[in-house]
Design a protein that fits this description.
By secondary structure, this protein is of the alpha/beta class. 43% of the residues lie in helices and 10% in strands. The chain is built from 13 helices and five strands. Helix 3 runs parallel beside helix 13. Bound molecules: adenosine-5'-diphosphate (ADP).
Length: 291
């Protein structure tokens, strides 16, 4: 496959009117270290100058880059990439996996869904099950939920005493720093929808016989604790977004924008890593003919 060229262009090359629409979404959406995030200030329907029509082409190009660079990354066997997906129920983790990560070859891209811990997992510290699933060289590991549940649901439901979960932000930062220093590239996406959008998505699930299975009565209890989850997310985003393991707050009311944003941020990062196919084995004569 022909090498995709980076579509990153310098702002100075562009006419003034196009600047807003073409600013890289990663720059717009990354939580800068030390920022106190207030989700009330984020519009979950924001599209940063994109329209659904213009986004289609941009998304197709980003997905093509994802396919190309993931194959190189797998072949090169040098980089390790960890992608964390978090969001309130119905925020679109599943849709993102399908529409964005669908560009990857599953061989090099394990997806791990973190559920209520098993008895064996609970018998260990909360990072035990997570560390075991971090990516090896050549892999892009995708976490559908993650160790952040241990300061989200665990905090909101009071599953461990506050004095324990309070210490976890620093522990998580130290854990991710260890991964980063040892060569793992980390990207974390918080898919942000508002309460009205969640109601509509729940209602749509209930109305569609093929989607009803996704709905659980417990989802309504979680919905009642909306404000507590938002507060817990704000602490996660504000306290755990260092340079080497950033959070991106993805406005996710519009599914097409959510897909575009995640695809573009991932593709830009893989472009930066610049993975290359390894040279052929020196033992292979250049003019070898297979008969
Ligand atoms: P999803 O909602 O991600 O599609 P499920 O409906 O199976 O999948 O939900 C997984 C559940 O596991 C969520 O309610 C989540 O809060 C819970 N969970 C994940 N990690 C933990 C944890 N460390 N402690 C308690 N509950 C957890």
């Amino acid at each position: 496959m022909a090498r995709a060229t980076s579509s990153v262009r310098h702002h100075d090359d562009m006419p003034r009117t196009r600047r807003k629409a073409t600013r890289r979404l990663g720059d717009e959406l990354r939580v800068k270290p030390g920022t106190r995030v207030r989700l009330a200030d984020v519009d979950p329907a924001e599209t940063y100058g994109r329209t659904q029509e213009t986004a289609d082409d941009e998304l197709a190009a980003d997905l093509a880059r994802l396919t190309d660079f993931q194959e190189r990354l797998w072949a090169e066997h040098r980089h390790k990439v960890l992608v964390v997906l978090q969001g309130i129920d119905a925020a679109g983790k599943g849709g993102t996996l399908e529409h964005v990560m669908g560009a990857f070859n599953p061989l090099g891209c394990p997806v791990h869904a973190f559920k209520v811990p098993t008895e064996q997992e609970l018998a260990h510290d909360y990072l035990w099950r997570v560390h075991a699933r971090t990516p090896g060289t050549g892999e892009i590991a995708i976490f559908d939920r993650s160790h952040y549940e241990d300061v989200l649901v665990v905090r909101v439901l009071g599953l461990v005493p506050e004095e324990r979960w309070r210490k976890r932000y620093d522990q998580i930062n130290a854990f991710e720093q260890l991964l980063a220093v040892e060569g793992t590239t980390i990207l974390k996406f918080f898919l942000y929808i508002d309460r009205d959008e969640q109601r509509e998505r729940f209602q749509a699930r209930l109305a569609d016989p093929d989607k009803r299975w996704k709905f659980r009565m417990g989802d309504l209890d979680t919905r009642k604790q909306w404000d507590d989850y938002i507060a817990a997310y704000e602490d996660v985003l504000s306290r755990c977004s260092p340079e080497q393991a950033p959070w991106f707050v993805i406005p996710a009311n519009k599914k097409w924008f959510r897909n575009l944003a995640v695809a573009q941020i991932l593709a830009d990062k893989l472009t930066d890593l610049d993975p290359r196919y390894p040279p052929p084995d020196e033992e292979i004569p250049p003019d070898l003919v297979v008969d």
